[in-house]
Amino acid sequence: MCGIVGYIGNKNSVPILIDGLKRLEYRGYDSAGVGILTKDKAEVYKREGKVSELEKYISELKLNSKIGIGHTRWATHGIPNEVNAHPHFNPEKTLLVIHNGIIENYSVLKKSLRDEGYQFVSDTDTEVLVNMIDVFLKKGQNLCNAVRYALSKVEGTYGIAAIYIDEPDKIVVARKGSPLVIGVGDNENLIASDVNALIAHTKRVVYLEDNEVAEIYKDKFIVKTLEDENLKKDILEIEGSIEEITKGGFPHFMFKEIMEQPESIKNSLRGRVILKDGLAKLGGLIGYEDRIAESRRIIICACGTSWHAGLVAEYMIEQYADIPVEVEYASEFRYRNPILSKDDTVIFISQSGETADTLAALKEAKRKGALCVGVVNVVGSTIARESHTGVYIHAGPEIGVASTKAFTAQLIVLSLITLLIARKKNLSVVDGREIAQAILELPNQVQEILNQNELIENVAEKFVSANNFLYLGRGYQFPVALEGALKLKEISYIHAEGYPAAEMKHGPIALIDENMPVVFIAPTDTVYEKVVSNIEEVKARGGRIIAVANNDNAKIDELVEYTIKVPSTIPMLMPVLTVIPLQLMAYHIAVKKGLNVDQPRNLAKSVTVE
Ligand code: G6P
To answer: How confident is the model at residue 259 (pLDDT cuts 50, 70, 90)?
Structure first.
């Protein structure tokens, strides 16, 4: 999940690479480097830490080269330090390679390279790759062939870019399992691991598929298979403006993304709700609607926050569409032997559309004949392209590592899918209209909650020094409890657990004392009274309680220390509202602790390794 960028053209590549790396930093940020070709040398500049460190370092060097590659790293093999940062050299320092992914057979390859006399300076699997390419260059192959031959020996995943002093007119790139996109410019071309790094320069892109290699010149590009067959690739136009992927005056991307949820939700549902008929219209599913509605079973596969959205969808679909639903961690699903048939539909939820485990689960489900539906944010991403059909959530670029607006947009799309299939089954037009109406009201209701930002910040302030947190909810609110806990631990490093409220008595209750803040997500629904009993149990043991409750629930204020009020909607949509205060609380606690909320330690936005 490192970030890759490259440039070839008539401009100085170095500032372009640095700018690209900054836009990719959310993918990995423990070290960064650039490599360039000058008249007679390949040069590498690397720094441990963030891209700004690298920028500071090279700004004094006045580097200039019309071809270069850059990398921001999320360590897999070898600790994050300067030596392990990319690019990596061959022994003669004529070839430079950057790599995203994992070379699984790297120890076998490393041993055989050692036997041939290669020495290694880093602990990375990438250095194995660069030396493998070097072996073929020494046998007289050109760069592109050497890359192809080396990759044919490699097991694992890669998105790579290589430049070579003897062929200074090209960057060679290849992909298997890690995204790579070519940005087609005017007398200049770029490459990157995602479009965020390209958008300032061009909106015309070519996505590489697995097992494809490309030679990028300043005025042309040639794409072929690993087996050397030439391919004709379409140039696509990407959507989204540069403003959309910048902070736009907010102190952090995460805050911006939380605050823009009324807008992102509107974008997710725009043109998709037909109120008068109580229907949802999802262009991507046309032709597949009956097959989904007639599924014997729906399985939802995802990771992280997307998995939590899947758990909410389980409640939605079972309540309204009468189809049994199972929700699976993609990482578990891919290595089980899932019993699937063509009567099953598997929904893959992914913000990035590149998560390695989700993608592998998708391939497995396809192999077994199930209908695969993608619910994805990043347009043109691998999961979006590999699914049989799907729905984009249209949340816009999400840069903060902790997912916020993608979660609510996923819930919107999942509620629309539910409405669509439920109306094909037993749901009446009147009930369909009620859901449609409630969906349309969400943007304003979310705005009402965001208007209480200051109040939520004040609550957050009281808990900055907490070491633990418990989040409890039932029914539709159980996944929200998990998501609230995940948000807090991701960015504030406070240990937090989410639990179904009724399960508290089977263990977590032992933890309750005056040092244990407990967040109850307690809208007034069918299980509300039972949740109140749980609140009493925590109170009796001295726990400090924060409750998220409905606006019209005045009684709860007497029961708990702090209440955050949200508007009311139908139970299936309440998670869209109740999660907002939890996002804001996590954000404010992390900011008050002085932490980097957009790039929390050890995490990455797009997890393209296992
Ligand atoms: C990483 C991110 C999470 C995200 C998860 C799944 O862990 O930090 O925010 O929920 O991956 O990512 P996806 O892109 O598939 O939704």
So the answer is: very high
